[in-house]
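As a representative case, the lines below give one protein's residues and fold tokens.
***
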Amino acid sequence: MEILHKNLYEEILYDGSQIESNWAFKFLGIKGSSIITWKGPMNINEENLKDFEDIGLEIKSDKMIHFIVEFFDIQTPNLNIIYLRQRLLVMIFAEKLLEYGVLSKRSGDDLYINSKKLSVSIATISLSSMKIHFAVNLTDLGTPNDVEAIGLLQLLDKNNVLIFNTDNLDFFINTVVNSYIDELKTIEMDISKTKTL
């Protein structure tokens, strides 16, 4: 499976519309399975909510890293598979944080640091594709008042030095995406060499 990654450098508001099918093709001309990443605020319109539990809640933040993932490799699209792929992305993100000395805790598809919420995510399907939105706070600014949040740009090492900054953030994003793509390709290769029962 070929997966194209494109990191956008312009700031884009995530309002929930980007989870729609073929968004990368309609707005960026990218065909096929893809991962689109960018930094920007989030404020999800209620009509764009995909999780029934989120109806009536504020889902917002002033600045986040966004991952929009879309797969076309499985027809008919399968909710179970996309939720497994979503969890895989979240776990790889946590694994890469640990390489920077940051211990996070996963609860479902959310990551927490010291009980403070770091990320949000949703997975869904359309008639032709499977999609993930995974977003990670860069700061806690603009998050809902009833949510204790934390961002990557607030994390300190044991010497009280910021772990992430504008110089290493894109490298970190690329590392996460490349590891995720490699994991999916490895699964595909393992399938291709497995003798069935």
Observations:
- The mean pLDDT is 93.
- The two ends are 24 Å apart (CA to CA).
- The chain has one domain: 4-192.
